[in-house]
Amino acid sequence: MTTKLKAAIIGSGNIGTDLLYKALRSEIIEPVWMVGIDPASEGLKRAKELGLKTTSDGVKGLEPHIDDDEVRIAWDATSASVHESNNDLMKKHDVKMVDLTPAAIGPFCVPPVNLEAMMGRNEQNVNMVTCGGQATIPMVAAVSRVQPVEYGEIIATVASKSAGPGTRKNIDEFTRTTAKGVEVVGGADRGKAIIIINPAEPPLIMRDTIHCLTKDPPKEAEIIESANQMVAEVQKYVPGYTLKNGPVFDGNRVSFFMEVEGLGDFLPKYAGNLDIMTAAGLRTAELIAEEILRAEAA
Amino acid sequence: MNLEGKKVTLHDMSLRDGMHPQRHQLTTAQMVEVATALDEAGVPLIEVSHGDGLGGGSVNYGFPAASDEEYLRAVVPKMKKAKISALLLPGIGTVDHLRMAHDCGVHTIRVATHCTEADVSEQHIALGRKMDMDTVGFLMMAHMIPAEELLVQAKLMESYGANCIYITDSAGYMLPDHVIDRVGILRRELEADTEVGFHGHHNMHMGVANSLAAIEAGAARVDGSAAGMGAGAGNTPLEIFVAVLHRMGVETGIDMWKLMDVAEDIVYPLMTHKVRADRDSLTLGYAGVYSSFLLFAKRAAVKYGLKSTDILVELGRLKTVGGQEDMIEDVALDMKKAGAAE
What we know:
The structure holds two protein chains of two kinds. Chain A is of the alpha/beta class. Helices cover 40% and strands 27% of the residues of chain A. Chain A has two domains: 5-128 and 276-297, NAD(P)-binding Rossmann-like Domain (Rossmann fold), CATH 3.40.50; 131-270, Dihydrodipicolinate Reductase, domain 2 (2-Layer Sandwich). Chain A has a six-stranded parallel sheet, with helices on both faces. In chain A, α2 links the parallel β2 (29-35) and β3. The relative contact order of chain A is 0.15. Chain B has helices spanning 28-40, 68-75, 95-103, 122-130, 147-160, 176-189, 207-216, 238-247, 256-270, 279-287, 294-304, 308-317, 326-341, and strands spanning 9-12, 45-47, 83-88, 108-114, 134-140, 164-168, 195-199, 221-224. Chain B folds into two domains: 9-270, TIM Barrel (Alpha-Beta Barrel); 279-341, Helicase, Ruva Protein, domain 3, CATH 1.10.8.60. Chain B has an eight-stranded parallel beta barrel with strand order 1-2-3-4-5-6-7-8, surrounded by seven helices. By secondary structure, chain B is an alpha/beta fold. Chain A binds chain B through residues 151, 153, 155, 157, 160, 165, 168-172, 174-176, 192, 194-200, 204, 207, 209, 211, 213, 244-246, 248, 253, 255, 257, and chain B through 58-60, 90-92, 94-96, 114, 116-117, 119-120, 122-123, 318-321, 323-324, 326-327, 329-330, 333-334.
C-alpha cells in the first residue's frame, strides 16, 4: 500500500505518546498531528522530534489544518469530560474518531470480539470502552459464544503508577463503562466491574480476573477451546496477554486469571492496561483506514 | 495513661465488617434486631453495608442475603437515637450507591481507599459533603506507609471535603507506637475541626490497646464491634473497650451492661463463623494481610490441599491490598502448580 491515511492524536500524555510510537509502525496509518493543551508538554516535544506537527491549543489549534493536511482519523486520548466537544469538531470535518476515553458516546469496540461486525456500518465515532474492558471482555465473550452467560464480573488490578489522573478523578466512569461493555460486547445478561489500584514496588503487571456465571452447567471442553482461541486473537496485537490460571470451573462459575504485559513502547511493561488500550485503538483505526481506502479505490 | 474526661464517639462495625465472617449472609431481620439493641444501648453510630461497602455484592466478595438498599431501608427507620453509616470503596461502589444511601437516610458516608490512593475518592467525598452528610475519609491498610506519607493522603481527603479522617488498621498489624505516630501526625497537622478516627482489627489482640493509644494521640472517633464481629479476628470488641474506657473515666454515652447483653445474647449466638484469633487470623496480623481474606484463604486451602497460613503469607509477600480477593484463588493455583513441580 503506497498511500497511508493521515491521522491526528488528541492528547499528548502517556496514552497519546505510547499510541504515537505504535502508530509510527503502522503500514496503513501515518500520524501527522499531535494535539496538546500545555506548551511545556513532554509529549508534544517528543512528537515534534519524531516529525509530527504539534499544537498546544487543543483541537482548536488543529482545526485550521485538518483539511489541508488531510487528517481523516483522530484518536482522543484526553478525558471523558472534553471528548464530546473534541468529537463535535472532528465530526464537522468528517474525521473518524477512535475514542480512548470512557466517554462512550459512540458504540463500544473490543477488536477481537466485534471489530469486524462493526465494519461497513460507517460509524463516525467508536469507543474503546476502558483498559479493563479491553483486557477482560474478550474472555466474557469467549464464554458467551459457547453458552448463555447470566452474569459477568471482572476485576482489573493495575499498578498505581499506571493509573493516570483522569482515571483517578473519575473512577466511577471506569466501573460503569466497563460493566456496560461486559454486557453489550461481552454478551453477559448483567455485568459488574471492579478496579483495584495497587502501589507495590516494583509495580505489578496488570492482572485481571474474569468470573462468568453460566445459565446452564458450563460446557467445559468447548469453553476451554473458545478461550484459547480468544487469547490467541488478543495476542496478535498484545503479545503479553496470557491466561495465567484457569479456567476454573466451580458449579456454574467459570473463572479466568489473566496477566497483561505491555510491549514497553513508551510506557513500562507493567502498564499492560495502557498498552492494551493503545494497541486496540490502533488496530481499530487501521481497520477503519482500510475501509476508507477501499471505498476510495472503488 | 490518663484519658480522664475525654470524649469519644464509638462506631459499631458488627453489621458491616461483621458481614465478612457471616459471608454477607446476615438477614434484614438480624440487622434490625442487632441495630435496635445497639441503639437501645446508646451506641451513637452503626455501620450497615455489604462487608466490602455499598455495591460490594459480587462473585469476588460474595453476594449478600439482601441488597444494601433493603438493609438500609429496614434499619434506618427503626433507629431512635443512633445514626447509620455506610462504607463505600471507589472502584467497587459508585456515586449512584452513595445517592441511594443518602436517600435511605444514611447519616455518615465513609469513603475508603488504599492508604496511598486517596485521590480516587474525590468525587465521592465531594458529593457526600455536598449532600451535607457526615463525610469520612478512610485510609485502609495504613500500616503499609509511614506517618508522613499518610498525612499527605489525609490532606487530600480533607481538601475534597472530608470532615473526619481515619487511620484504618485493616490487617490488624499495628502496635500502639504505630497508632500513636499515625493518629498523632494527623491530629497535629489537619485542620482543628477535622476529626481523626481509628479502626482496629483484633488479629494480634491489640484492638483495645491500639484504640486507647489512638484516643491518647487525639482520635475523637473509634470503631469497634459488638462481640468483636468483624473480619479476621474481628474488630476491637466494643463491649470490652467500653468497659475499659469507663474505668478510665472516658465518656462514651453507652450503657455498658446493655451493650454486654447485645454482644452475649444476640451477636455471639448468630455468628456462623466464631470470630477469634485462630492461627489464620493471627497470621493476617503478623504478616500484614487484609483481614477479609481470611475465609477465602481457608476455603482455597481446603480446595487445593494447601495450608491457609502459607497462602496468607504469600499474599502478604505479594503486597496485596484490600479488595484483591481474586488473588487468593490465583495464588493458591500458583502454589499448587509449584508444589506439583517439586
